[in-house]
Amino acid sequence: MSKDLTKRAEDYSKWYNELVVKADLAENSGVRGCMVIKPYGYAIWEKMQAELDRMFKETGHSNAYFPLFVPKSMFEAEEKNAEGFAKECAIVTHYRLKNDPDKPGKLMVDPNAKLEEELIVRPTSEAIIWSTYKNWIQSYRDLPLLINQWANVVRWEMRTRLFLRTAEFLWQEGHTAHATKIEAIEESEKMMHVYAEFAENFMAIPVIKGLKTETERFAGAEETYCIEALMQDGKALQAGTSHFLGQNFAKAFDVKFANAEGKQEYVWGTSWGVSTRLMGALVMTHSDDNGLVLPPNLAPIQVVIVPIFKSDEEFDTISNVANELVTQFKKLNISVKFDNRTTQKPGFKFAEWELKGVPVRIAVGPKDLENGTFEIARRDTLSKEVKPKEGIATYISNLLKQIQSDLFNRALEYRNKHVTEVNTFEEFKDVLENKTGFIAAHWDGTPETEEKIKDLTKATIRCIPLNRVEEEGNCIFSGAKSTGRVLFAKAY
Question: Alpha-carbon distance 429 to 48, whole Å?
Answer without folding.
Answer: 37
